[in-house]
Write a structure and sequence with these properties.
heterodimer, A: alpha/beta, 12 helices, 9 strands, globular, B: Rossmann fold, Rossmann fold, four-stranded parallel beta sheet, 16 helices, 15 strands, 44% helix, 17% strand
Amino acid sequence: MIDRLQIRLSALRAQKRCGLAPYVTAGDGGLDTTLAVLRGLDRAGVACVELGLPFSDPVADGPVLQAAAERAIAAGASFDRVLDLIARFRREAPEGEVPIVVMGYANPLLRRGWGASCNALAEAGADGVLIADLPVEEGAPLAAAAEKAGIAAIFFAAPTTADERLAAAVRLSRGFLYAIGRLGVTGARASVDPAQEGFLDRVRAAAGELPVAVGFGLSTAEQVRAVAAHADLAIVGSAMVDRIHRAFTAPGGDSESAARAAEDFARELSKGLETS
Amino acid sequence: MSLSAPTRFGDYGGVFAPETLMAPLEALERAWLAFRGDPAFMSELAALLRDYAGRPTPLTPARRLSAAIGAEVWLKREDLLHTGAHKLNNTLGQALLAKRMGKTKILAETGAGQHGVATATACALLGLECTVYMGAVDAARQRPNLLRMELLGARVIEVEHGQKTLKDAINEAMRAWVADPHESHYLLGSALGPHPFPSIVAEFQQVIGQEARAQILAQAGALPDIAVACVGGGSNAIGLFRGFANDVDVELVGVEAGGEGIAGGRHAARFAGGSPGVLHGAYTYLLQDADGQVRETHSVSAGLDYPAVGPEHAELHDRGRATYPYATDAEALLGFQALAKLEGILPALESAHAVGWVLKEKDKLRRKRVLINVSGRGDKDLDTLRAALGQQNPGGAT
C-alpha cells in the first residue's frame, strides 16, 4: 500500500536522512532464497526494497542484472510466483513493514493488463511499481491503474531529461521519483560522476515534496554517502545482486547464507548513511 | 514533452523506451522532421542513392518462373543495390541524418549481417565511426558479412547472451546508446523500435515501392494484382507496401518465417503465432509466453529470426489492408532453388520466403500479376544453403 511507503519516506525526510533501498532480482537462486533475502534486508533495517520482476529482454540493465534475470526465469520466477513471494513475506513477517516496490519491464504487466497487474501487486502486499521502459508518454494507464489499486506508480528522471519532462515525471509519480544517477545501464561503477550532484539537486528542486531516489552505479558505502545529502533513498542494485549470487553459489552456499550476505552488505552500506 | 509527430500506427507503436533514451529520441525526431522537408538534404540523399548505391534498381520480368507457375511474375531487384540488399536505402539516409545532427559515432545491430554491412558502408562513405552488434549465432552463420563489415572499417561485437541472435543484438545496441547518447546515433535497421524509428526507416525505404509502382506501370502497363515481400522486422515490406498504399486493388502480402512449422513452436511467425505486446520500444505483435516473456524464435534465415514485427505492419494487419501468411524453411529453400534455376538469381534466404509463398500459392495466383520484392542477394547464405540442401536433395526439385 502506498501509505506504507509514504510513511517511511516522510519519516526519513523529517529526520533529514537518506535511506537505503537495495534492489534484488526476484527468484535469483529460487524464490525461497529471495524470501530469505527479504527477511535479511528487513532485519538490516533498510528503508525500502526494490524487487525486480525478471524479464527476458532487460534493455536498461547491465550484465549483472541481465544474468540474474536469466537465472530467475530459468528457476521459474513467473509473475504469479513473485506475487506469491511478496504475499508470503507479508504473511510470515507481519512485523516486517519494509516497503516493497516492484521494478520490471512493460510487457509482463501489459500481458496481464495494467489494472489487473496493479490490483494483484496491491493484494500481494507490494507498495509501488516502476517500469524501466515506460516513460511518461506511455505512463498514464499505469499511473491510473496504480492509483486505483492504492500503490505508487514511480517514474524516472535521467541526466538527459529536460525540465519540461522532469515536471511531467514529478506530476505522474507517487511515492518517489527515481533519478537515474548517470547515463548507461545498471551496474557498479568505480566512481560517482561529479556532475551527479548538480543533476540530483535539479531533480530535487523540481520534485519539491515528492521524495527522490537515486540509483544506477552505486555499489559502495562511500558512494552511498556521496549521494546521501542529495536524495531520500539510495538504491544499490547490481552490487547487492552480485553479493547474493556469490553467497548462494559458493561451496556450501544456500538460501540462508545468501540472506546473511544481503543483510551484512546492507548493514555495511548503511554505514554510509549514518548521520555524522 | 516534445515529441511532436504521431507516435502510433492505430494502436501500435509508441515509445516504450528507458528515460535516458527519451532525449536522444526527441532530438532524432526533431532532426528528421527538419530534414525530411529540406530540399538540400533530400537532394543530397537522392544523389547518393543514384550515384553511389545504384538506384533505381531494375524491375525484372521473371519469364521462366511465370511460365512454370502460370502467373505473371515481376521481380523488384533490391539484390542489385550496392552491398546486395535494400538495407543501404535506410543506412545512407540515417547516416546522413546523424552527420547533420553532429554525431560522430554510429551504433547498429545486425541479424543476417546485411544491415551491418550497409551501415559499415555508409559510415565509411561519410567518415563516421561504426560499431555493429551481432548475435554470436548469427555471426557464425553469416561469416562472410562479418568479414565484410570488418574490411569496411567497422568494429563488430559478438553478443553472447540470450538467444544470441538479432533480438539480443538490438538489446546490446540499445544499451550502448543509453551509455553514450550525445556522441552516438543508433542506426536501427528495420521499421521497428520506439518512435520515431518505424517512421524514419519506412520513409527511407518507401523508394522501393515508389520505383516499383512507376516501373510496373511503364513495363507491364498496369499495377500488380499482388505485391509480396518477406517480413522480419518489416523494412523491405513496408518500403514496398507504401508505394501501393492508395492502390486499394493491389493486395499486399507480407510473408513471415514459418521455420519448422507453427505447431511445433520453432518459427518466427508473429501474426500466426503471436499476440500484441511490447518489445524494443514498440507495442506490436510479439511471440511471447503466457507470462509475457519473449519466446525464442527459429528461422533458416537470420534476417527473419526476430520475435516482434514493425508496428506499422501490425496496424495494416488489423485493418485488413495487408495479410501476413508464412513460408516454412523448406518452402523458402524451394523458392531459392526456383529463382536460382529458372531466373539465374540467387536471392537471400529472407527474400526466398516471398518466392516460396508464391510457389506454394500458385494455384490461387494463376494468371495474376505478382510483384515480388527480392530484398537481397544470397551470397551470404552459401554455408547455410550447403548445409540445408545437403540434408535435402541437392539437385533440387523446382
